[in-house]
Amino acid sequence: MNAPMNPRKLRITTTSLSGCFGCHMSFLDIDERLLELAALVEFDRSPITDIKHCSQHCDLALVEGGVCNAENVHVLRELRANAKILVAFGACAVNGGLPAQRNHLDVGQCLSQVYRTPDGSATAIPDDPELPLLLDKVYPVNEVVRVDYFLPGCPPSADTIWKFLTDLLTGRTPRIEHPLLKFD
Amino acid sequence: MSQLETAAHPETLRRVAIDPVTRVEGHGKVTLLLDQDNKIHQVRLHIVEFRGFEVFIEGRPYWEVPVTVQRLCGICPVSHQLAAVKAMDQIAGYGPLTPTAEKLRRLMHYGQMVQSHAVHFYHLASPDLLLGFDSDFTRRNIVGVALDFPEIAKQGVLLRKYGQEVIRHVAGKRVHGTGAIPGGVNKALTVVERDEMARDIEQMIGWTQGAIDMVRRLHETNPGFYNVFGESAGNMMGLMRPDGALDFYHGALRAVDPLGQTIFDQVDYADYQQVLQEEIKPWSYMKFPHIKSLGADKGWYKVGPLARVQAATYLATPLAEIERQKMMALGNGKPVHGTLFYHWARLVEILHAAEMIRDLLNDPDILGTDLMADRGERRYEAVGVIEAPRGTLFHHYRVNEDDQVTYCNLIVSTTNNNQAMNEAIRTVARQYLDGREVTEGLLNHIECAIRAYDPCLSCATHALGKMPLTVEVVDADGQLASSLSKA
Ligand code: SF4
Questions:
Q1: pLDDT bracket for residue A147 (50, 70, 90)
Q2: CATH code, domain with A41
Q3: What ipTM did this prediction achieve?
Q4: Residue nearest to atom 2 of ligand 1 (CA)
Q5: Is the pLDDT of residue B472 over 80?
Q6: Is A67 inside any structural domain?
Q7: pLDDT at residue B468 greater than cutoff 80
Q8: pLDDT tens string A2-22
Q9: Is residue A176 part of a domain?
Q10: Is the pLDDT of residue B469 over 50?
Q11: Residue of B nearest to A19 (CA)
Q12: pLDDT tens across B382-424, in order?
């Protein structure tokens, strides 16, 4: 065993709450560096693996998307409990993003508008117990759990993500400076 | 109603959930209800999120819509941008696009076909195909593929990168760029950009042909399995040119039945409401559309690669057309309906898109600088439709005198495939799980069927469809509770 010679692989978990997956796509936009990264990290629960629940002792959790339903809260708390570092990954996680535009509307009315006739004669809002309860608003991640780092951008660029990860992997405090710090 | 959709006595049964479904985009879960003998009584794919995009878009100015709606989906943002902008071209009163503008939009769209299909095939689905459906689940991912098949993983990563770079050159950014604006596009292509794309295109075509060969060889190892896995014969729909060639960017609607016979053809997509209708079921936020004339039971249909390459008369590029015919030859004159053929068809489509990219890069118009159409009279309602990577995508808007959106209806590709995916997983449940001890590997068979459709549950949860059509409400026993007509 040459384990002590090799530094332990960083264990990363990623999730998308109420996001569009664009932040995950931007992560894949590190292109060939993904194969390099695979040698240094291990993926835990993530949409790209088949691990359904995050295991204990993850080093890093990347959370895309705001919090829009009870299940999102549950998943987010599980990640927070198991990851040393939790990152609000992208605009939606940082401040709710575009889905938070529903926040000035009443969620009940939104539902009945989508699942009802214009004359208001009837509704058929899906209500099966398998469907998680919607929250009144879409919340940024830091209103539900403590967040260690915020990576803004819709999505953060691949280079921004790479800089962040390589800083962490080499033991530096991640620092995203001007040219990589974008909000669009 | 579909068999296995609703159990007669759910309270007596054991529930098994696949939650979340992984290696798909977005959130979904599957629930199974079984009795003590592991006989399966109910199988459902649930879409568990609600985002209500169509509601909050109301009141926003129309020119903002193409860039906001693309935030429905980070995997196919270009599709949403283009479907919206095709509607807004009309709303803003623009006449036909300039040749350069249309070609740049097409270029970006084909770039997205390449990247989205590549991410699906290599990053999400290939672990099942290459490592095995019931291989060790901790390794069943792209990293596992990279360890065992480094060359394939690398090609997948670079093919996706190529598609993303095409998008970036046209739209300025890989994910959520701008590019298309009502009336045209906002940036011309430079010679340097064109040459950079042209340099690698032959390589991309070569790799895609290699991938198609790989899938063909896989199929040869076990045709009995691949032909029938999750087989569900449904109707098929897509956008076609008048001569019947598949067109990802613009065309009219064609639907064919499971045997390939025409149901309707060359229907102007602005009239989609005359041919399609949808249903709400209490256990999913995603609605269930079907072909109106056939009713809910028989009228469900599939969209996306396997549906549209088979509904088409031909593909308008030579290499892809040869591959399409080779695939379809396996059906002995009839369309193939094995769910895993979706992967094969998806690769044929990458090839088609790559050939289209090559042709566009060789076209002098692509470097033109006449980017905006002439403007005529404003309109107040329009429909924009394209073939997104996952299938036909409908955007329908009304806009008032003050340029505010007053109505928005989106039917995303994955919604079109809702019933088809439910049918496919019920078939798999019957084929592989019924009466057996449920294991992780068997459950992954169900996910494999869902994955083959490359569902974008992200799109599906943002956009729930607010179809101004007849909505049929089905109660828990599958009886029609009421039927409502919208304006
Ligand atoms: S921040 Fe942007 S790219 Fe990321 S999930 Fe939200 S909308 Fe998508």
A1: very high
A2: 3.40.50.700
A3: 0.92
A4: A154
A5: no
A6: yes
A7: no
A8: 444 456 788 999 999 989 999
A9: no
A10: no
A11: B458
A12: 999 999 999 999 999 999 999 999 999 888 888 898 898 888 8
What pTM was estimated for this model as a whole? 0.91
Contact call for A20 and B142, based on CB within 8 A: no
Percent of chain B exceeding pLDDT 70 equals 93
Residue A124 placed within a domain: no
Ligand 1 pocket, CB under 6 A:
A 19-20, 22-23, 64-65, 90-92, 97-98, 154-155; B 71, 74, 175-176
| Count of domains forming chain A | 1
* Residues of the domain holding A87: 10-102+136-169
Please report, for chain B, the start and end positions of each structural domain, with discontinuous segments joined by +.
52-427
Q: How far apart are CA A179 and CA A173, in angstroms?
A: 18
**Domain B52-427 adopts which CATH fold?**
Cytochrome-c3 Hydrogenase; chain B (1.10.645)
Tell me, yes or no, whether A5 lies in a domain.
Answer: no
